[in-house]
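chain below, 116 aa
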Amino acid sequence: MKFVLKLEELGMFVFGIFLFNQLSYAWWWFLALILVPDIGMLGYIFNTKIGATVYNMFHHKGLAILIYFLGMYFEIEWLKLMGVILFAHASMDRIFGYGLKFDDAFKNTHLGEIGK
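prediction:
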């Protein structure tokens, strides 16, 4: 089952690349921005509850899709870029087993414990 889930996430990551290709940005923007959502880990400086909340905001695909659609509706290219990067990054993370975090520990995710 884990293989099927990772394959699904790979498909979504490729879809994120496709959506990025529809934008007017050079490819180096994708490479430069793909890890930016990990800034959400800074919430863990305070405690695990704040850390999980902030991290999950930066890795929630529903929020990424909402941001992308707002960019489409208002015709704001950088907002579409933000949505695509958030979506692709979340998919990439889940391929490697990094899911949305529970507030008890960084390693406790909706995909199970990281490293197991």
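The longest helix spans residues 2-21. Residues 2-109 form one domain.
thats it, cya
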